[in-house]
Amino acid sequence: MTAAAVDIENLSVRFGAATVVRGVSFSVRPGECVGLVGESGSGKSTILRAIMGLEPVSDGQIVIHGMPPRPDRLTRAGTVQMVFQDPYASLHPRQTIGRILEEPLRIHGIGGREDKVRAALSAVGLPISFRFRFPHQLSGGQRQRVAIARALILEPRVLLLDEPTSALDVSVQAEVLNLLKQLHAERGFSMLFVGHDLGVVAHMCNRVMVLENGILKEELSQQALHAGCAEDPYTRKLLQAARMEAAVVLHVR
Amino acid sequence: MTASTDRPLVDLRNLTITFAGHRGPVTAVHDLNLTMGRERVAIVGESGSGKSVSARALIGLLPVSAKVSASRMDFDGIDLRGMSEAGFERLRGSRIAMILQDPRQSLNPLMTAGQQIVESCRLHHREGRRAARERAMDLLEAVSIREPQRVFDLYPHEVSGGMGQRIMIAMMLAAQPDLLIADEPTSALDTSVRTDVLEEIQKLVEDRGMGLLLISHDLDLVASYTDRVVVMYAGRVMETLESRHLHAARHSYTQGLIGCRPVLGHPVDVLPTLERQEAWKS
Amino acid sequence: MSAAHIDRAPASGWRGWLTAEQPESVFQGRAVQVYLSARRFMANPLAVSGFLIVLLLLFTAAAAPWIATHDPLATNLEMRLLPPSAEHWFGTDHLGRDIYSRIVHGSRVTLTIVFLVSILIGPVGLAAGIVSGYFGGWVDRTLMMVTDIVMAFPRLVLALAFVAVLGPGIENAVIAVALTGWPPYARLARAETLSFRRREFIQAARSQGASPLRILGLYILPLCMPSAIVRLTLDMAGIILIAAGLGFLGLGMQPPTAEWGSMIATGRDYLIDQWWVATLPGAAIFVTCLGFNFLGDGLVDVFDPRQS
Predict the structure, then answer these.
(1) How many domains are contained in chain A?
(2) Contact A237/B192, CB-based, under 8 Å?
(3) Nearest to B195 among A171, A196, A241 (CB)
(4) How much is the pLDDT for C202?
(5) What is the ipTM of this complex?
(6) Is B258 in contact with A252 (Cβ distance < 8 A)?
(7) Which chains form contacts with chain C, at 3 or more CB pairs under 8 Å?
(8) Assigned domain for B179 exists
(9) Which pLDDT tens digit goes with each residue over A212-223?
(10) pLDDT, mean of residues A97-125
(11) Cα distance between residue C215 and residue C218, in whole Å
């Protein structure tokens, strides 16, 4: 049994008087994809941001394999990376795509940047010539591919995904999800996938954590999710809504 | 409602919309033809397909850089071509209502939900405060809000996305419009309420004999709530279908749009994706 | 609403290269941006006229010794208070000095003040604003308190007091104007930084391990620059007026150096009978301020982040 890639113990995040995450514990095994689901305000994105060091941890601890408990900026960035929800907001509007992809390499003082940028672009299925364009010249799906390329250019062991497709068209979502699955299979990093669409999460993840108001309600396997087996009443409610939607969608097909 | 059955509610012929780009005009919509009565029609396509732009042309909400031309552009017998902003203002709200993606951005943050609906009632019916309040309560009930009394006094930031969208719908219904345009009404909402909101819209439109123009990128989700689907790509109509015959879609673009969403209880390894063809653009 | 379909075949030659949707090098990418911005600017006739006025001012200042017809300091009491003529285009003042030449040389003083003030208040204001906005907390509270205090001072009165203490002169005038000039920039930059701080591209930069200094300098500063430049351009008129006001009160550039404000002050006594002595330097101030304002309005279009 190898050590967990991500091990979260009793994590709490408070913003002033509001507690957004309350004593959440779970772990992600190396190479696994774990989903975090819940409705808006459930604290699922906050957990990701806490892991990334973007929110202060009020209580509990986050241990990431191969990283000291209080990592410095660069160590953390080299180990964990994140893809954000809105591809229209996550790329600097005045930097070219090439510059955006080079940025992590510059920060970490890594050489051979030109080649790495080319490789990163082709890995996410974008033409090399895109490096001279600005974000506003790209479609939403293309921007999200750039964001994925940027997150992977430092070769992190853990990739955090914060609703990476919810701002995209369904047809483009399929392309991005396929790309993520393919990269995951090729490179074997671990993924923590936040989503609100159970269909998407069930498609991507081996296991799913269900959150409500910052509390971990239930853990479900991919099979249980597809089969709709849940104990917790809140999970059942979510599942039921998702199954209703599935019924609507499959009826059309 | 005075519906004349022989006259279509919306009649668009050769609707073409171009925007001034820095490399010359860019055509967003190409010769769109759409005739609809008091029925439910979905316009479906990916972003950039021209679906939103077409609907906005109908209520005069395009930016000034847009040029609209059509050989016919009628709403209930009224010619919309060259209509003044004042003319559109009279139509908007009272005869054509529009629901947008994010209710929290379309509601006035400084007024309670109830006040906003009351305002809308008073504006369109010139009725007293008390009557308008009662009507507002009825409307909140009509959109399946269980505690209208409580919700009446809530501010937009105090309600969830689904609730906000219901309030928005109630507000739009206050005017008893003939046509409801819903532009991606569910994409900013949690999944658990998406079908509820669509259900609600469909029910109300049916009960009140209104026309519905539903705009979405999500073909297999919205199709069930409409009678007909217009599939658009790059500003052109690829195909128009009866919703119940969607599985028999012939156009490869339509086929591509169906089935690209991962569905619970229906595991697949790789999601089908669209091969977009240059030929569709002409 | 994205462009769905481009009707026209790609333009060829230089124009094609400059409007390419798919640039082939970083240089071309930048060039396309510059070209499109320039086109937006050129589409605004007021902006272009503002630009031309400012250009004229720069040229006048640079070429002053050559385009002036007389020595701006040479007095000739026999020729005093002459109306505009072929010999003295703008007439002469009470000491018989050529007003045209004095206005031409005065543009140097004006430009020096404008230049010195903008390199002082722009950076100071921007730095205070982005640091305050990005870090928040006590840093923000302290910096904003200082800003509020400085903003509460009446600008011209403080400038007067300052010059009164340090003694008249252009350097002190500049310091006085700059000292009270930076707070609006700090406010502006802070407000913009606050709106960017939570944006995902800043979060992404933090995730990559970028240091706060890097984020401020490479991510936030470039985004705050445009509005600061626009603001600075629009503020120029106010700065020129304050400098002229100090000159008028005899607290700016000291005689006999030609300065527009003090030229108006000397013309005050002859306003009715020899109108040109005060009016023409006044017109120079007016046109220059107008030029900067038009230019500023035009720059708003250029920096508009919505790439139409």
Answers:
(1) 1
(2) yes
(3) A241
(4) 94
(5) 0.90
(6) yes
(7) A, B
(8) no
(9) 989 999 999 999
(10) 93
(11) 6
What's the pLDDT at B148? Answer: 87
User: Mutate which of A45, A74, A107 to test chain C, going by most C C-beta atoms within 10 A?
Assistant: A107
For chain C, what percentages of helix, strand and coil (3-state, to nearest 5) are there? 75, 0, 25
How many angstroms separate the CA atoms of C162 and C180, rounded? 11
For residue C154, the model assigns a pLDDT of 81
Average pLDDT over residues B66-85: 90
**Does A165 map to a domain?**
yes
Say if CB B43 and CB B232 are below 8 A apart: yes
Cross-chain Cβ contact C208/A107 below 8 Å: yes
Does residue C277 sit within a domain?
yes
A1 domain residue, yes or no: no
Contacts 24+ apart (CB under 8 A), A243-246: A243/B264, A243/B265, A244/B195, A245/A199, A245/B191, A245/B194, A245/B195, A245/B221, A245/B263, A245/B264, A246/A199, A246/B263, A246/B264, A246/B265, A246/B266
Q: Is residue C238 part of a domain?
A: yes
C214: domain range?
46-78+87-303
**CA A190/CA B29 separation, integer angstroms:** 44
pLDDT in tens, B143-187: 878 888 888 998 988 888 888 888 888 888 888 889 999 998 888
Q: Is residue B148 in some structural domain?
A: no
Gap from A86 CA to chain C (nearest CA, Å): 8
Ramachandran angles phi, psi of A160, nearest 5°: -100, 135
CATH of the domain at B218: 3.40.50.300
Asked if B262 and A140 come within 8 Å (Cβ–Cβ), the reply is no
Q: How many whole angstroms separate alpha carbon B171 and alpha carbon C84?
A: 71
Q: Are B266 and A222 in contact (CB under 8 A)?
A: no
Residues C207 and A82: their CA atoms lie apart, in Å, by 7
Around Cβ C241, how many Cβ atoms within 10 Å?
17
Q: Is residue A10 part of a domain?
A: yes
To the nearest whole Å, the CA of C41 is away from the closest chain B CA by 13
Structure tokens at B23: 């490399």
* 8 Å CB contact of A177 and B47: no
* pTM for this entry: 0.85
Cβ separation of C6 and B21 shorter than 8 Å?
yes
Residue C227 lies in a domain: yes
Give the CATH number for residue C263: 1.10.3720.10
Residue B140, pLDDT > 80, answer yes
- With CA atoms as reference, the chain A residue closest to B242 would be A252
Residues of C in contact with A107 (CB under 8 A): 208-211, 214
Boundaries of domain holding A209: 6-90+157-252
- A214 SS3 class: coil
Chain B residues lying within 8 Å of C8, measured CB to CB: 23-25
In a domain, A115, yes or no: no
pLDDT of residue A1: 47
Q: Which of C23, C203, C209 sits opposite A132 (nearest CB)?
A: C23
Residue spans of chain C under pLDDT 70: 1-12, 21-22, 304-308
